[in-house]
Amino acid sequence: MSLILPTKLAKQIEQILARLRHEVQAECILLADIGGRLISAQGRIQDIDPVLVAALAAGDVAAMTELTRQIGEESYHGSFLHEGESKSIYLFSVANSFILIVIFRADTPLGLVRLVGGRTAAQLSALSADFEELAKESHEVPSGDFGAALADELERTFGRL
Description:
Shape: globular
Structural class: alpha+beta
CATH superfamily: Dynein light chain 2a, cytoplasmic
Number of helices: 5
CATH topology: Beta-Lactamase
CATH class: Alpha Beta
CATH architecture: 2-Layer Sandwich
Order of helices and strands: HEEHEEEHHH
Radius of gyration: 15 Å
Largest sheet: 5 strands, antiparallel
Number of strands: 5
Strand content: 15-25%
Low-confidence stretches: 139-144
Helix content: 40-55%
């Protein structure tokens, strides 16, 4: 399920994400809310299910938030990376509102993705108050049981194997 944004906010987000994609030559940029609802997808998404990737990324961020709490930290506001042989994925938690997902070729300099992704996360953070207000007003109520929704989606996707 994706969230419908007002035109002005959607354009701001699209411009920020397009700049990121251009600067790091990312294959795909996804933006999700902290609950895993897809907000925006740019780039080459034919090889992935962006809704599933957004949901899985939310699960990763939730797990990292809890791990951080377990070691005595107040909150998790970071990023993490999976480096693959041909593609890598970098997740940025943004102001506890968004998850910025960058999928890029393994030959892309990691420092570039970290630098430009961090700058992009800061720009998105500035929009988080507007987004949070919209989310409160939204008539679309996310599922109260994220775990069950994720399990259903995983079963639907991978149950056919």
